[in-house]
What does this fold into?
Amino acid sequence: MKDIVWHDHKITRAERAANKNQKPCLLWFTGLSGSGKSTIANALDVALHQRGYHTFLLDGDNVRHGLCSDLGFSDVDREENIRRIGEVSKLFADAGLIVLSAFISPFTSDRRLVRKLFPAGEFIEVFMDTPLDTCEERDPKGLYKKARAGEIKRFTGIDSPYETPPHPEVRLDTSSMTVDDCVEILIQHLARNGLIR
It folds into this structure.
């Protein structure tokens, strides 16, 4: 990498954000499959868009179709998947956007790696603290059933661990909270921390 030189842009991150009249940040939705990550991230994306904010949503399955289509589900591949998403999220935030990323991201070290890419206060870890029983009962993609039948190996929550965030900025449980409840809590968090008006 000695022959690769960083090129500074004439327009700064702060100027891009100011042009959009908002502060950039990353809301990182993490939790088991079926915990509500994509549902809540989508609902928040809509709510922020309706309020005039500039956002972008990165979803785990969607990214696996393109940017990370070459990766499997080994620990090493999962780590690389999150590393790439972290870097892409940072680029979107550098463009002045409010970024929403919905990924199981089961390992604490991977989430910590992404957090370090962002200035203090701009990484918001949203832990979808929905019980495994609820996630498995929903099983929207039929993955738990396949994992229990041995058709999918190393499935998070079944035969691969999920490391619970010890101190998430926001904790949501969609087994007892509605989508509207969750969105309101997230909007309040962003407002309280000066990230939106």
The CA atoms of residues 6 and 92 lie 18 Å apart.
